[in-house]
Fold SSD domain-containing protein.
Amino acid sequence: MGRIAWSACGLILFVQAAILAGGFELKISTEYYPQLESKHGGKMCAMYDLCGSRSDGKELNCPDPTPVVTPDEAFSLKIQSLCPTITGDVCCTPTQFGLLRAQVQQAVPFLTGCPACLRNFLNLFCELACSPDQGLFINVTAVNEQGSNRTVAAVDLFVTEEYGQRIYDSCKDVKFAAMNTRAMDFIGGGARNYTEWFTFMGHEAGPYEPGSPFAINFRTDVKEGTSVVPINSSVSACFDPSLACSCGDCPAASTCAEPNPPAPPQNRGCFVRIVGLEIRCLTAAMIALYVCLLFVIFGWWWTYYAPEEQLSSEEPLLQNREDSELERPDTDSEILPAQENQVIDRPKDPAGTPFMEAFLSDRFRIHGEWVAYNVKKVLAVSILITVVLCLGLIRLNVETRPEKLWVSPGSKAAEEKEFFDSHLAPFYRIEQIILATIPANKGSSAPSVVTDENLQLLFDIQAKVDSLRGNYSGKLISLQDICLKPLGTPCATQSVLQYFKMDADLFLDYEGADHAEFCFEHYSSSEACLSAFGGPVDPTTILGGFSGNNYTQATALVVTYPVVNAISDEGNAAAIAWEKEFIRLVKEELVGMVMPYNLTVSFSSESSIEAELQRESTADVLTIAVSYLVMFVYISVTLGDYTPSVSPFYVTSKVLLGLSGVIIVALSVLGSMGFCSFFGVKSTLIIVEVIPFLVLAVGVDNMCILVNALKRQDLSLQLESRVGLALAEVGPSITLASLAEVLAFAVGSFTPMPACRVFSLFAAVAVLLDYLLQITAFVALLTLDFRRSESGRVDCIPCMSGGTEEIDDTSYGSSTRQQREPGILLRYMKNYHAPFLRIPAVKACVVAIFFGLLFASIALIPNISVGLDQKIVLPRDSYLQGYFDNITEHLRVGPPVYFVVKNYNYSIESNQTNKLCSISQCDPDSLLNEVTRAALSPETSYISRPAASWLDDFLVWLSPNAFGCCRKFPEGNYCPPDDQPPCCPEGEECGFGDTCSECTTCFLQSDLLEGRPSTEQFQAKLPWFLAALPSADCAKGGHGAYTTSLNLTGYESGVIRASEFRSYHTPLNKQSDFIDALKAAKDFTNKVSKSLNIEVFPYSVFYIFFEQYLDIMNTTVVSLSSALAAVFFVCLLTTTSISTAFTIIFVIAMIVIDLMGLMVLWNIQLNAVSVVNLVMSIGIAVEFCVHITHAFTMTTGYKQDRASKALVIMGASVFRYEV
């Protein structure tokens, strides 16, 4: 919706405007009426003087032929001031001329910006009223008898077709800035050619309606043998140098003849044609690389059986320990048998363990033994620290405002929005209802919504909305209390009911839906169609579902309630209270009201999105709880040993340990949130919804690894020693993975996007806290659980014995080492998975498949779409889901766009006025002329119409030509138009008082400098303009239309700090439309700012949310690259091996790239949420890669044996984590 889509509030009357109840004819009559009493010939008047009036007081001419009259000098000068082409004799009296002047002054403000059009328009009516050759081209065809008086009832006015076409061409493109539309819509009823225009002007106005008091039949046919000489006087073209119009009003001008240069074609990138198909160069390159890789793989496989190649390929990458140095169960130390036809690996001399690895293993062994000996102390300290951290939750504050989540505080769009809100006015709040018809059956079109029944229903709905009250601090708030009122009149509601003045009693008086359909075509030219707040209502803002201008085929009624917006939350509290009741009303009452009418209703308020996001956050609590419960059950099952031959299941199970592990994960998340909240960092819904699952996944992996490592230790050792050895074995890999994850998320906290930054910060703290609790509290709990199981006590009820005597000789109680039966996953890894991967052909296939996925994903990534569908982030049962669907389907008007000018220097020396305006004498490449040119190519500019310009209207209002606008009393103070108080007191007929009889125009033409006001004149009259109400005598008043369009603070210095010129985007239906519109607007203002040397920026309410997508690819690359770099640094530091670190990073990068490829296939858009998930995927991928890689580096033997051992040792744990 536009901020003031109806912004010319108060444009009440227009020259020759008429109620055309039956529509007007679209052709000029060619029927030749018989001549009455007019005597055609020069120096004869067809109708001279006034002989009567209509019932509404409108004066009527005398129909009697009269010789021309020679005026006195004073009258002659007065005539020439308006009609310079009429000199000498005339056919009008001073009274007739006064009526002419009063009538045309209503049209002057619309046309002053284009001098050629104005002059031609005035000449036409001067010829009609006062020309001494009137008898040659006017024929009185009908008279009224009023007693002894006879008055003109109808005339024929003869013109040539060339004259009609030329005068129309000079005016057809003149725009009316306040309404972002053509002046022809007002002075010509939207005429599309000169015949329609003449027909509109010649229509006889009804009683008390503006327009001609008698019918004027414009004719172009002249029969031979008559004395008729049609008007064919000279017409000034709009590009006439002496009366040149601006480029916006006259695109045909030589300086404007160049069409708006088309936007450069979108950079589609590099493409090549292969076998008739056009494919991207990147795709072709990936295909070529993959083919080369397949040849390499095939060559390797072909030569694999050569003994010398076999030996060289079997060299260990890293030599660490001999098998004899690493005592493990048979599942670890046993080298799997070689496959048939495979050379047996030959072990090589051991190499020393890396310093960091040896150091960490030793520290973790000591730490594990200390924890096992001091279980109670460790648990007490862990609980104490966690509780202290959780106390910070008292200060927890969840941020749900979208602009605070997805917009960087330092972003350009955020700065521009803050400037717009603080210097001009915040964009108003929107409350909206959409009523749409339903097709009779599937595949059929929806019927028209404009029916008497539906409009009466809408009146009933409106009555309920009007009676609605919200409670704010004990005060009842109605719509009238908060709505936007541009002129202090009724609310500026955008509704089809405005055609009935929002009055149900007028519905039948105005003939119901027929009147609405009439107003769709004449909303700007008919007084009966004006709204209750005094302005015209554009049907594109109140209807939906139509094509072109077929408003009667509309399938939706759109009702918009603009509400005053405030910068602070406190200032909007009353509006929010009313909005809550508004949503309740629609849900509980209106939905049921429309169902019997076969209609659907969708609705929204300004606070709806934030309210629905908050509702979703509370709804997700149950989802998180259920997920943790499922994970608890899964952990309990996977950690336990269900081997009846060893011990009963109720002894070997790990239910209590699994519950403890899940609690540790939950405490890690809560502690992270408490810690960050204590320092004032606001949480987000992403944190609440994602981090619990992320930390749970990491925690489960570490728990599985720790439990399995302890199970692998020699049972002949004391439990405390086994705990130390288990931690020494897996502690370095857990540390490596956790530290890599922490650094990856920590790096992400430096991204500018608040949602990503806060998520990364919370995730880093949560993973770090989880790691610390895992190697302390969980190790202590693990020790207690093994003591319980080895002593034969029941799980979950450790005080109850499970039959100790029966299991004293088992592996839990024996002093000698007993071999457990390996689990299913362990047996699978040892007997199937690892041997299968050792087959050369399988190796080749695995490498080929995964590199194929990598290359395919790289080729797909350029096709990834950016944006974030609002429906995705909302609950599936939200009422906004249907609302957004209807917005896309039905709305036919785009969002408003404001071109904001900073520090406009209006001094006459700066010449910035001509660089901005678009009326006569403005620069051809001025800002507003460029906007008009851009609107000619909306497909690329996304600008649908010229901009509404307070500057243009002010200059016209100030001009002496608009003699009904800027006026002053003899004392020098402001004098309003004659149809406004005090010139026209309320309740009295205008034009008969003496209050304003001595008012004169503010300036003479000679007072201006080349048609422009001086700095002092500009400064003095600008407040007058902004306070002037628009009316029939002067439609250019700035009050209402431009009240918030500029900031006068400090303007006395000659500089206006902020001002805006408003236009509209084309309808935007897709995420890509919004992004492209923003980019086009940015490019446009950057070009204009540079060429004019004036700071201009575009602003629309959606820019702040979509700016991120202009650079989302770079943000993604930086975030992922930083996270990968952090992981590489940690891996290099802990492993001291560049090859190992590179291998880990390469595999993680492959995973991330494959995920981005899947995003294209699954149509997942790239946005802040997906960037967060991609960063999170790096953290999760670390868990997959680091543990197996670490196990590989810590085993000895040939590469294949070490890989097999690593899979057997860590594969089962990682698989459990993956599940």
Q: What stands out?
A: Residues 428-613 form one domain. The longest helix spans residues 754-790.
